[in-house]
Amino acid sequence: MSVAELKERHVAATETVNVLRERLKHKRLLLLDTDVAGYARSQGKTPISFGPTDLVCCRTLQGHTGKVHSLDWTPEKNRIVSASQDGRLIVWNALTSQKTHAIKLPCAWVMTCAFSPTGQSVACGGLDSVCSIFNLNSPTEKDGNLPVSRMLSGHKGYVSCCQYVPDEDTHLITSSGDHTCVLWDITTGLRTSVFGGEFQSGHTADVLSVSISGSNSRMFVSGSCDSTARLWDTRVASRAVRTFHGHEGDVNAVKFFPDGNRFGTGSDDGTCRLFDIRTGHQLQVYCQQHGDDDVPPVTSLAFSISGRLLFAGYTNGACFVWDTLLAKMVLNLGSLQNSHDRRISCLGLSADGSALCTGSWDTNLKIWAFGGHRRVI
Fold this sequence. Notes:
Elements (H helix, E strand, L loop, with lengths): L2 H29 L4 H7 L12 E7 L6 E6 L5 E6 L3 E6 L5 E6 L5 E6 L5 E6 L3 E6 L14 E4 L5 E6 L6 E6 L3 E6 L4 E7 L10 E6 L6 E6 L4 E5 L8 E3 L6 E6 L5 E6 L4 E5 L5 E5 L11 E6 L5 E6 L4 E5 L4 E5 L11 E6 L5 E6 L4 E6 L7
Antiparallel strand pairs: 1-28, 2-3, 3-4, 4-5, 6-7, 7-8, 8-9, 10-11, 11-12, 12-13, 14-15, 15-16, 16-17, 18-19, 19-20, 20-21, 22-23, 23-24, 24-25, 26-27, 27-28
């Protein structure tokens, strides 16, 4: 068979696949006769309500001199690490507001940070395309700074996000502007697997965020500037398990739902969306309608411990609390006392779900605690 004939057959096969894909998409849409909120309303569910003291700012963590870009809690709930444009990582005691470590970074252009599951190490990455690991128990150098214990080099673009594999201090996953995600062995400093890149099922633009399933650490989801989220299995790096469409802008944030069967996304199109990893269906859209169509982009998100609440940070300083069941915005932390006055760049929930931490371009972090009649949801 000649090369020309092979090309012709390839083109025909590609057209057939595209036709079948469209047919499948149409059939799936016909099955989506409602969304989560529509079904919940039909069952007589009512939205969560918040009183004036149910979620309050109890602490402001001051110490950074530049925009805060990222934060993460330790699993034991009382420590937070934050990364800032001032070129430092700060480890905070969330109960006392005291700084336990202030780490000057080799590269000031940091974009992400993460605590290891044991809380003994922190990782960070940014425009230097390297993920740096710091052991918090290491002795300091002569200048008082903590030395880098491991540098994970291999990305060809900036490191946008990093997250440790749950219950393992030895492996983490990074996402990058080089369109890939990488699973690293921290002990050796080598790449275990590369997801995307030359593979057709990978992202076609910068990958901005990753989230690892808490119920199955082999599964993780990524969000990208190609307006999609993709589900990956660490055992099969050559192709994504599933691709999720729906957003009309960069997917800035992804986060697994507590049960591990769903995940949320936040995008430049101003919406958050809930997807089911088993069916591939979009279950719900969370969007506040604005009369002027000027919807601020979503920068970050987190679910409450039950999944009933979705916390979403926006570029205009708002932090909406959504009722995930009824797709209703039940509280805006940006309208409360002591709220941030600039973009919410990152947020995260403590391991026990009792407190929310938000980071902002105003250089501060704030801890919000459930109180009054409203405890952990």
